[in-house]
Amino acid sequence: MNYQSTRSPAIQTDSAHAILQGLAPDGGLYVLPDLSALHFDWQGALQQDYTGMAANIVSALLPDFSQEEALALVKAAYTGKFSTPALTPLTPVGEDAVLELFHGPTSAFKDMALCLLPHLMKAAAVKCGDQKDVLILTATSGDTGKAAMEGFRDVPGVRIIVFYPKSGVSPVQEAQMLSQQGDNVKVCAVEGNFDDAQTGVKRIFSHLSDQLHLSSANSINIGRLVPQVVYYFSAYADMLRLGRIVLGDKLDYVVPTGNFGDILAGYIAGELGLPVGKLVCASNVNNVLTDFFHTGCYDRRRPFHKSLSPSMDILVSSNLERLLYFLSGDSALVSSLMANLDRQSYYQLPPALLEKAQAKFFAGYCDDAATVETIAQVWQQHHYLMDTHTAVAWNVAQQYKAQNPGHAPVVVLSTASPYKFPAAVMEALGLPSTGDQFQTMEDIQRSTGVPMPANLQGLRQRPRRHFDYVTPEGMENYVIEKAAETTWKK
Ligand SMILES: *Cc1c(COP(=O)(O)O)cnc(C)c1O
Question: Is 202 a catalytic site residue?
Fold first, then answer.
C-alpha cells in the first residue's frame, strides 16, 4: 500500500520517500489511506517485548522496511539510551495508571520518536538511492528541538537547524538546546511564538524545496508518528500483566495534546486493532481543540496564551489534518477545510463528521492554577510527582471520569520529567523560592527524594554553544546562508 497526501489521492509515494520528504508537495500530510487493510496481528504484537512490538508496528506501517530491518533499526535507536530498564514504564497511581514516556536522553516523550527517526531517514535514503545530504528544519515549542538534535547529532549526511520561540520555552529547555553538542546542528531563536516559528518553517519548505534538500523532524513527518504508536501497545500489555484488564477489554487513553501527533498515534493504534476506547484530548488554556471537539469549529482567531505547559501552547495543531482524512476519507473535503483555515483562520466540520469525531474523542482543558493544584494534590494523595503537561492530562482525566461513569480503565500519558518545568512544581510543593530554576531543581530533589534525570544534572555549568537570533521574516535568509556554509564545525 502506498502513502498518499491528505489533500489529493493523486499524490502518492512509498513509505521511504514519505519519510524523506516529510510534507507532501501539495502541502498535505502523508497517510496510509486504509489502515484496517493491513490486517495487523495486534494480539501477536502484545506478546513481544518493546523492541519486538516496535519492529512489528514499524514494518507494518512502513512497508519498505522488513521486520528484521526494523528490529535492527529499533535496537540501534533505543539501546543504552534510556534510564529505566523498561523504555516506557507504566506506574499505577490510585485507580488510574501513568504511562511514563520521559526516560529517554532528553527527558521528554519526543525522544520516543526522535531516537528512531534518524535511523529511519538514513535507511530510507539508501532505499531511495538518495546520496545528497539532507537538511532537517524543525520548529520547536521546546522539547522537539532538543530531542531532534540529540537524535541527529553527528549522523553523517544530515544537518539540522532548530528554530525556537525566544520567549516561549522554559529556561531549562533553552539551556538544554543552547548547550547542544554536534558539528551538524544549529539552534536559532525566533522573535515570536511557536506558531510564528512553525509557519516560518512551512513557508521555507514551500519556497526552498526545489533548491535545498529539505526534510522535517516535526510530527508532520510520518517517521515521527509511527514510533509513537508502539507505547499504546506497551501500555496495554502492561495493564494486562498487572491484571487491570483482560485481553479484548478497552482502555481509555488521556493525552496532553499540542500538535495532535501523540494522540493521533493512539488513533492509529486503534485502527491497527488495539482495543482503544476513548482518546481524551487534554489541553491547557490554549483550548482550540477542546472547542473543536465540542462544536466542530476549529477557530484559531483567539489570543495566544503562554502557559505553564509550554509544549502545548499551540493554536494550529498540524496533525489534526490526518484525523480529518481518516474520519472522512475525503481529500477534497480536507483540502477545502485547510484552505479555509489558511484564508479565514477557521473551518467548520460537517455535522456527520463531528459526530464521528465525538464518538472516538473526549476533549477538555484546564488552566494554570488547576495545573499547579493538580500537581500538589497528586503528590499529597499518591506521592507521585508529575510535570505540568502530565498534570493537565491528569486533571482532564478526572473531568472525563466524572462525566462518563461507564469509562474504561484510564491510562494517562506522561510526557515530561517534572524536572523540566521546575518552577511550577516548586510552587505546587509549596517550596520557598531560593534561586533560579537550576537551584529549584536541586531543591525539588532534596525535598521529594525523586531523583533528577542524569541528563538534566549540571545543566547550569554546561557551556553555551549557540547564539543566533532572527525575526520570523529572517528565517528564510538564515536557512539559505547556513545551507551555503560548507562546515558548521566550531
Ligand atoms: C510535544 C509535547 C506535547 C504535545 O504532544 P503533541 O504530539 O504535539 O500533541 C505534550 N507534552 C510535552 C512535554 C511535549 O513535549
Answer: no
Q: Is the CB of residue 108 below 6 angstroms from any atom belonging to ligand 1?
A: yes
| Ligand 1 atom index nearest CA of 262 | 7
Does the beta carbon of 197 lie inside 6 Å of ligand 1? no
Report which DSSP code applies to 416.
B
DSSP bridge partners of 252? 410
pLDDT tens per residue across span 406-426: 999 999 999 999 999 999 999
Ligand 1 touching residue 415 (CB < 6 A): yes
What is the distance between the alpha carbons of residues 4 and 483, in angstroms, rounded to a whole number?
29
Cβ atoms within 10 Å of 159's Cβ, excluding its own: 22
Instruction: Please state the separation of Cα 191 from the chain's center in Å.
Output: 23
pTM for this model (two decimals): 0.94
The residue from 110, 122, 186, 278 that is catalytic is: 110
The residues, any chain, with a CB within 8 Å of residue 387's CB and separated by 6 or more, are 102, 375, 414, 415, 416, 417, 418, 419, 420, 421, 425
pLDDT band for position 218 (cuts 50, 70, 90): confident
- The answer to whether residues 30 and 13 touch, using CB atoms and an 8 Å cutoff, is yes
- What CA–CA distance (Å, rounded) separates 290 from 30? 25
